[in-house]
Amino acid sequence: MSRIDARNKVYGATAYTQDINRPGQCYLALVRSPWPHARVTGIDTSRARAVPGVIAVFTAEDLGTRRYGVFVRDVPMLAQDEVRFVGERVAVVAAESREAAERAANLVDVAYEPLPAVLTMEEALQSDAAPVDPHPWSYPGALVKPEDGVNRQWRATVQVGDVEEGWRNTAYRVRAEYFTPGIHQGYLEPHAYVAEYGPDGRYHLWMPNKSPYSLRKELADCLEIDPGQIEIHPVPLGGDFGGKGTPMDAPLCLWAARRLGRPVKLVLRYAEELTATNPRHDAKITIEVGCDAAGHLTAMQMVARFNGGAYAGLKPAGTLQAALTVGDAYRLPHVDILAERVYTHTVPRGNMRTPAAPQLYFAWESALDELARSAGFDPIDFRRRNLRQDGDNLWGTRALEWRGVPTLEAAVGAFRPLPVPPGWRSGTGIALYHRGTHAASMHVRARRQQENVVVYLPFPETGTGSHTVAHKVFAEVLQVAPERLRIEQAPTGELGPSAGIGGSRATAGLAAAAEAIREAWQRDPDAPEVTVSVNPTTEPVTAYCVEIAQVAVDPETGAIAIPQLVVAVDVAEVINPIAHQIQIEGGAVMGLGGALMEDLAFADGRPQAANLADYKLPTMADVPLPTVVLVPGGRGVGPHNVKAVGELSNVPTAAAIANAIHDAVGVRVRELPLTAERVWRALQEASLPAAD
Questions:
Q1: E-assigned strands of 13-163?
Q2: What is the extent of the structural domain holding 344?
Q3: Helix and strand counts by DSSP (H, E) for the chain
Q4: Quick check: 382 and 297 in contact, CB under 8 A?
Q5: What is the pLDDT of residues 223-260, one digit of tens each?
Q6: Domain count across the chain
Q7: Per residue, what are the HEC states of 453-521?
Q8: Last residue of some domain: 242, 276, 310?
Q9: Are residues 29 and 123 located together in one domain of the fold?
Q10: What is the pLDDT of residues 465-478, one digit of tens each?
Q11: How does strand 334-343 pair with strand 297-309?
């Protein structure tokens, strides 16, 4: 089954936001802070205004105090009085050309008084730490209260059983700290905006955003207008991976379009993307876990801290909920978890594919491996004896079935070690992840046009093939020949509010919408058009991914190669086998990138990898083609019986590789990325004589 958008993309006919131009438009460029924390004592725009083609230069003095956010509304459109991270917007220039706007932006003179900066979570959580935000509980949507302590953005705990009782029954116990860096989502298309304010008082916006209706409300809240005054126009996304679900610079663009009385266009440079957008949270995770003499898990304590950066507004409220279910794939009777997100004077963090899970499961599955080896158990057998089985009534996720063991067996059955270079050492590591499957709520419209049918969806094509899946599902359910069915995204003015795409929810929601449209036309066969609203309720379904990595390590240099990666995935029905396979392979490759090379490398609050020469993304030469094994027969959700797949295979990769490195050379690397230098240093430290 081919992608319905493939031809236009291959031939360059697809119009992304950067390709859109409106009559009379001008161009914006941003002036950004070079300091992580400073007071703005003055802004001189005279040299910038003198540049030919410059129309205006705006500062916070022009905009007022409006703030925005996905949930917590704490992000200013332009910095007000002080800057809180390197790259924060300080001023905006409007000009007749992009070149003039950028040239003028470089000539805006901003006077700063540098202030002490809180750059790490350790600094932020000290008892005498200065607050990054003095009143984070005061914003609409705030997730903390004054009693939560200084520099917290979000805080939650889980306690199951009695951990102290669990420790009394423990024969083997390990405690370790794990670190993961901030990394960028790696989409090809940068953030881009075209904004227009019409004579009828309506705002129009073109931008890559996967949740248009949520975006519209967020913008309306910021601008203090009715959401119906804003129209989000359809555009495809040139990649998302969680990074394009926020307003980002859109409130400023809409404000500028109205103030100037003409359309505006802003396209970020990639240096801005890597410096000032919404990367994945870096994390420090401490885990203590134990088992009894027979190898059964007894208790786990975890403290997981995530660097949220200078503002809390660039992520949904539940972005770290994965922290509250770590370990629930296993029979684990006693649990104590503390998870929190922390303010620092660094770029605000946001969502990335499977929010928080790659960080958490690198730590958790590494800790399980350490426990198994310290207790003398084979890591695969250790997981086999502890994985939840059908009928287990334990804490955490509730599911119709637990297919961890058969998925593990499928991975083991497919794994065949390959030869490694002479002198290199081979090792094998295993890790797993599971997540629930949900269905998105949405409004969908279907229109008959003679013998053809057009289906209007409320969300864009993000590059994953969701519109192609919709095409197949609606063609089958409505019994329309594929060549007579067209899938389009509707502007926000034409459909009711919908949740958007993300969280591996689209396919099940689309199947429910297709069934609802079929039933509507059965009730009224002559209706030329029907609009349905679906808010599917689904039974608790979970899907597993088990990965086994073979690594080759050069003990002289620490260099790492990955001869083989087996990815076993628990599935129900598969609607589009090619797209399904691509999601699994692409996720595993993304996991490899995060495991081995990706790192924004913050120093003094500034990302050091601020261009695509320094920020290393994996290429085909860097990674093996994963061996994918499907484990069919699972119980899915919705009328098409599907399970989530888009956010599975990227999660366990790092832990599987770290565990394989230990198996190969006997050293444990607890910080990502797993570079040759870190492996080499661990080998050197392991070879040093013990201190007296």
A1: 26-32, 38-44, 54-59, 67-68, 75-76, 82-83, 89-95, 109-114, 152-160
A2: 118-182+284-353
A3: 17, 27
A4: no
A5: 999 999 999 999 999 999 999 999 999 999 999 999 99
A6: 4
A7: EEEEECCCCCCCCHHHHHHHHHHHHHCCCHHHEEEEECCCCCCCCCCCCCCCCHHHHHHHHHHHHHHHH
A8: 276
A9: no
A10: 999 999 999 999 99
A11: parallel
